[in-house]
User: Fold these one by one.
Assistant:
Number 1:
Amino acid sequence: EAGVVQSPRYKIIEKKQPVAFWCNPISGHNTLYWYRQNLGQGPELLIRYENEEAVDDSQLPKDRFSAERLKGVDSTLKIQPAELGDSAVYLCASSLYLAGTDTQYFGPGTRLTVL
Amino acid sequence: GQNIDQPTEMTATEGAIVQINCTYQTSGFNGLFWYQQHAGEAPTFLSYNVLDGLEEKGRFSSFLSRSKGYSYLLLKELQMKDSASYLCAVRDEMNYGGATNKLIFGTGTLLAVQP
C-alpha cells in the first residue's frame, strides 16, 4: 500500500514569492492534515480536512496561507507571499477513523527554505 | 493550556534498554501516541495508548498513566538504527460519532545510540 505522497521534497524561494505544496493521502483515508515542523520542534497542526471540509484551521495564518482539498482526495497548501519565518518542513498526514481510533500516517514532508 | 514535556536528548549504548518519558497537561485526553522520526524523514507511528497500562510491540513498549499525566516509551536491545527523535503526542479532543484527532506534539527526544 502506498503511503502519503508529497511534492516537492525541497523548495528554495526568495521572500515575497509564492509557493505551493501538494499532498496525496493514503487511499481511502478521509481525514487529511497539514503540519508545520520547525527544526528541533514537534509538528504543529495548520489545518485538518474531513473529506472536502476544513474542520480545524484555527492555526492557519490566513493572511498568507491557504489550502484546498478538492474532491476530498489530494490537497494543496499555498503560501503567498512567503516570509523568512516560513522556513520549515511542511508535513502532510492522513488517517481513517476505524474501530475507535484514527492513527495518523505522515508523508516525507516538503522542506521549505525562504531566503 | 497545552503542555507536553520530554527530555531533549538522551544517549544509550547498543544492546541496552532506554526509557523515554513524557508528561502532559492538556485540556482533554483521548489517547497518546509515540512516533519515531529519523533526521530528514517523516514521523512513523510506533504505539498508541488510551487506557492505563503497558502496550508491548516487539522491542518497543509504551506505558500510560492517565491519573499522573505520564507515559514512557521503552526500547529494548537497542540497535544503531534506533538513533532518531521520538515524539510524544496527545490527542486532546473527542467528538462523539466522528473522528477526533487533534494531536498535540512534544518537541521530541533525540536519542543517540552508541556502539
Note: Chain B has no helices and eleven strands.
Number 2:
Amino acid sequence: NAGVTQTPKFQVLKTGQSMTLQCAQDMNHNSMYWYRQDPGMGLRLIYYSASEGTTDKGEVPNGYNVSRLNKREFSLRLESAAPSQTSVYFCASRATGEETQYFGPGTRLLVL
Amino acid sequence: SQQGEEDPQALSIQEGENATMNCSYKTSINNLQWYRQNSGRGLVHLILIRSNEREKHSGRLRVTLDTSKKSSSLLITASRAADTASYFCATPSGGSGTYKYIFGTGTRLKVLA
C-alpha cells in the first residue's frame, strides 16, 4: 500500500497563476483533509471531506477550492495564487470511527 | 480560534536523556493525539489518549492527560538521535463524531549524539 500520495512535491507559481494539488489514498478511508503548514503556525485545516460527495470548509478556506473526485482522490485548487499561499500543503485521510489521520509527504508551494 | 499550544517551542537534549513536552488546549475533548514530523516529511501518529485515561504508555513514550487543567504531556525516555523531529498534539474540534481536528504549534526536539 502506498498510503497517502501527493503530487507535485514542489511547485513554483507566479502571482495570479492557478494550479491543482492532487491527493490520493489507497486505504479505503472515507474522510480526507487538506492542511497548510506555515512556520510557527502548526497545521491549519483548509477543507475536509467527511465522505465521498461532501466537502466542508475548515479554518482557512479563502482562496482555495476542493473536489472529492471519488473515494480515493481529493484535490485542492488555487484559482489565483497569492504570495500568502506560499506554504507546505499536506493531505491526510482517516477511517470512519478511527481518530488517527494518515498524512501524505506534502507539497511545497512557492508563490512569487 | 481554538489551538493547542505546545511548550517548549524547542528543546535540545543529549542522547539518553528524557524529553518532556507539553500541550494545552482550550475546550473539553474526548481524546488527544500526539504526532511526530521528521524534517520535510508528513506527520506520523504516535499515540492517542482518551479523556477517561490519565496515562498511557507505548514503548519509550509516556503520555499523560489532565482534563481539569486541559493539558497533556509527552515523555520520551532514553532519547535517541532518531527522535529528532517536531512533535504536535491534536484535539478534536467539536463534539463527538467531529471530523475536524486542531493541531498545536509543535515542539522541535533535537537529540544530540
Note: DSSP finds no helices and eleven strands in chain A.
